[in-house]
Amino acid sequence: MQSVTLPTSLDEAVAALGAMPAAVPVAGGTDLMAAVNKGLLRPSGLVGLGRISELRGWHYQDGHALLGAGLTHARMGRPDFAALIPALAASARAAGPPQIRNAGTLGGNIVTSAPTGDALPVLAALEAELVIAGPDGARREIPVSHLLAGRELLEPAELIGFVRVPLLHAPQVFLKATGRTGPGRATASVAIVLDPARRGVRCAVGAIAPMPLRPLEAEQWIASLIDWDGERGLAPDALAAFGEYVAAACIPDHAPPADGSEAPPLSPAVLHLRRTVAALARRALGRALS
């Protein structure tokens, strides 16, 4: 490794990346250092983002929270943040052991885009947008879902500066299943966000695919059953049906072969994953409506 640069502003960081195209930006370093230790990455330089104070907090703008990309999971898990964006706070608290939560950042979770990233389904359900910083003070905004899907990749010398999240002032829930007791990597996760102003339910399923999945038809169907002007509660049968709808949309049956023969059944492991997603979606919606 040849050089380490420690800028104190977002534009300085962008300029440093422009001057050293092969350098890699680093904040918490939880994923970067794992890749270096495994020999998967040998950066010629690092641009450290830890001294950029504007990236470590948040402010309000037009009914949205503008979250700095340097916010750590530990900071997002605190009560004052949870009062603003409950599902994102819940995902931050579930992000792993204390050493990961203290170092790992919101922006790192997005850029790495690991399927098991706990913040990703929440950001997808919130329909968050990214504020991208580029050379010469340029700023552009893209939906977070576009970056996660690889539709709009970061250009050279660009950084995620902020994440714009709507403040819905309505229930939100994040749940995940892990392969072992305690905080760990998700085998499946579900984020549910209620949007009373638009009489909508937004759901995203994480960890089961390369990017979070939105079961849009299931969202529209369940939203049509909710009494938005009344108690909002749903019968257990409706909650269970929603869970099955979400699971089948995200983990569909095999398509029939072209020769017209019967489609092969899903494996026991896939069926178990489908049941897990159904249970998470059912419970998450039930909690959001309770």
From TrEMBL:
Keywords associated with the record: FAD, Flavoprotein, Oxidoreductase
One Gene Ontology MF term: oxidoreductase activity
Taxonomic superkingdom: Bacteria
Residue span, FAD-binding PCMH-type domain: 1-170
Pfam families per UniProt: FAD_binding_5 (PF00941)
InterPro entries associated with the record: CO_DH_flav_C_dom_sf, Diverse_Substr_Oxidored, FAD-bd_PCMH, FAD-bd_PCMH-like_sf, FAD-bd_PCMH_sub1, FAD-bd_PCMH_sub2, Mopterin_DH_FAD-bd
Designated name of the protein: Dehydrogenase
Organism: Streptomyces parvus
Lineage, uppermost ranks: Bacteria, Bacillati, Actinomycetota, Actinomycetes, Kitasatosporales
